[in-house]
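Appendix B. Worked example

We walk through a single record from start to finish. Start with the input: the chain for SDR family NAD(P)-dependent oxidoreductase, Paracoccus spongiarum, length 223.
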Amino acid sequence: MEQDQDTDRTGARVALVTGASRGLGAALAEGLAARGYHVLAVARTVGGLEELDDRIRSAGGTATLAPMDVAEAPAMQQMAEAIAGRWGGLDLWAHCAVHAAPLAPAPHIDGKDWARSLLVNVEALRGLIALFEPLLRQRKGIALFADDPRAGQKFFGAYGASKAAQMALLRSWQAESATIGPRVVIATPAPMPTAVRARFFPGEDRTLLSPCTVEAERILSAL
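Next comes the structure step. The output line below is what the pipeline stores for this chain.
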């Protein structure tokens, strides 16, 4: 992790955002920083993280950048250990990392895209839950996720199946944690002009979509 000089404040509220370089993840990171959280921003895109850090700093917030792939289990293990050692826990974890496989008829889904969808959207998430659940319980924290229901829609076989499996896992965890914590929140944002959506609907009028900042503010306010 690229350490910010202000991150050794043991009393700071700490928010981890996985998939923070763009879209809803970036908007949530900025919204959390504006609310006084120190943001741990994880994504593969270094440039996007650096731009996010510039925006957070210019608004008076602080962040630590972690250019990592959530599907790399050893890297995520190292991150969890670093968080435990420095802050002792997490107040909030917002997960927005996703693999959006190209649209394709079910018989023509590429095997590599299928495997990557299941790895990132299901298996990696399972591992992250195991790593971050103890950190969230230390601070009675919140785990926040975004649903995008596509199961059964034409050409969404890989993305829709992996997201449906992801939601099944999360709703089980949500039910299991209802009385003991952490609090698991599953939000369903309105359609947003994200890069993922642009790949799915390239001819869409993006001016009709809800900005990511608006959806992030709505979700965070509801928490």
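Two observations about the output. The domain at 14-222 is CATH 3.40.50.720 (Rossmann fold). Strands lie at 14-18, 38-43, 62-67, 92-95, 142-146, 183-187.
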